[in-house]
Amino acid sequence: MNLDYSAIKEKFPFDCLLNVSAKKFTSYKIGGLIDFLAYPESEDDFKNLIAYCHNEKLPITILGQTTNVLISDKGLRGIVVSTDKLNKIEIFDNIATVSAGVLWDDFIGLTVKKGLGGLEKTSGIPGSVGGAVFMNAGAFGQEVFDSLISFKVMNVFGEVSVFKKSDVKYFYRKVEGLDKLIILSAEFLLKKTDKEELLNTREDILRQRDKKQPLDYPSAGSVFKRPKNDYASRLIDSCGLKGLRIGDAEVSKKHAGFIINKGNATAKDVFELINKIRDEVEKKTQVRLELEQILMGEF
Ligand SMILES: Cc1cc2nc3c(=O)[nH]c(=O)nc-3n(C[C@H](O)[C@H](O)[C@H](O)COP(=O)(O)OP(=O)(O)OC[C@H]3O[C@@H](n4cnc5c(N)ncnc54)[C@H](O)[C@@H]3O)c2cc1C
Question: What's the rounded Cα separation, in Å, for the pair 121 and 127?
């Protein structure tokens, strides 16, 4: 695709960066050049950009905080849009309305401080509110959709609508029907709860995450979804795969469900390691692990 990205950049008043290395900012610290990375600051900015892309037939990729994606070494073509600049939080009584770009854990930290419960066990999940809704992120038995009332989306024509929770089918780390929609904000119903209790739960969970997860290395969290009645990390560990390495990509010795970047891992290293883990685990346990992380670009 030979596009004049500089000319496209001139059409918009918000930040648009050209030729950004994904390696510099993704959670995995991996990935090739992103031709065009836009940071719209309002719904109107999104509307103008999306409508332009639709008219010009340009492909769009949405990024939150990149904590669940693996971007190809060949990078991404077309228009890549970050929700980073959408960051408003409004809390009235026990209802919170939160823009897509707010960091999930900032939101949870605030609700806990206000004595509002229902999502405190998701403390420490990195990423944005938009990413958390898209993935139905969760931990320790709580997930985003437990407390979700509704969310606002924009379609490829730049039209905005509100989806109630009952309008979509949601499952473990998967929500159906969101293809080609941009989540702009979400509304949550929380429960008034004893603040000390919430603060203790949050602290305990952050401690457990720190103890169990390889947070000192770049990663994108759990690589695979939990198989039925089991844990991907337990299966991987039982196959003796902890520490298995391709290039600088390694199955974490601390948590076998994570692949970590030990320095200069490429997307190809991670991709090959993913395939190797899947094949080995299937050979030894007859379980084919399903990918949780999202591959973006050419593999
Ligand atoms: C150390 C670590 C620990 C983690 N622990 C957990 C955990 O306990 N539980 C858990 O569920 N996950 C966990 N994750 C994975 C990840 O944090 C979550 O999936 C998170 O919700 C992803 O949010 P994000 O903003 O980074 O999304 P991204 O990685 O940027 O995007 C993920 C997907 O969502 C789409 N998307 C993002 N924002 C929008 C939007 N506004 N509109 C439409 N689509 C959008 C993207 O296109 C992409 O397909 C962990 C990750 C790391 C690195």
Answer: 15
Q: Just give the CATH number of 89-212.
A: 3.30.465.10
Angle at Cα 189 formed by Cα 188 and Cα 191, nearest 5°?
135
Pocket test for ligand 1, best of 60, 125, 146, 294 (most atoms within 8 A of CB): 125
Residues annotated catalytic, as ranges: 173, 222, 292
Each residue's pLDDT tens digit, 178-203: 989 999 999 999 999 999 999 999 99
For the 232-296 domain, the top CATH level (class) is alpha beta
Distance (Å) from CA 173 to ligand 1 centroid = 10
**Are 156 and 50 a contacting pair, CB within 8 Å?**
yes
Fold of 5-82: 3.30.43
CA atoms within 13 A on the CB side of 239: 23
User: Among 68, 104, 152, 261, which residue has the most ligand 1 atoms within 8 Å of its CB, making it the best to mutate?
Assistant: 68
Low pLDDT (below 70) residues in the chain: 1
